[in-house]
Amino acid sequence: xxxxxxxxxxxxxxxxxxxxTVYLAGQVAADPVPDVKKQTQQILAEIDALLAAAxxxxxxxxxxxxxxxxxxxxxxMNAVWDGWVPAGNTPARxxxxxxxxxxxxxxxxxxxxxx
Length: 115
Description:
The chain is α+β, with helices and mostly antiparallel strands. The protein has helices at residues 36-54, 74-84, and strands spanning 3-8, 13-18, 21-24, 61-68, 92-97, 107-114.
């Protein structure tokens, strides 16, 4: 079974396709403005693009893991997530508070999807 790497870099690939599954690396905002809603919008747009490049879309996300730098922003992140995730196709999901790679990052999202 082949392995396809999307946006490979020296440390990691942004997505890896194996069989009928695509694994997305944790995505952070490309322009980390100090607003969790805006960062979440940027991340979800990148997830859409990566899924499309892998030949799938958000209706086929199986699971998502969300890390928040501050759990007090949970409702703000969910306001964006709830408008993006397709009704009837919500994935299994975990959301936790964690110290992220840099103080400019307020949210990070990783996902696994079927193709």
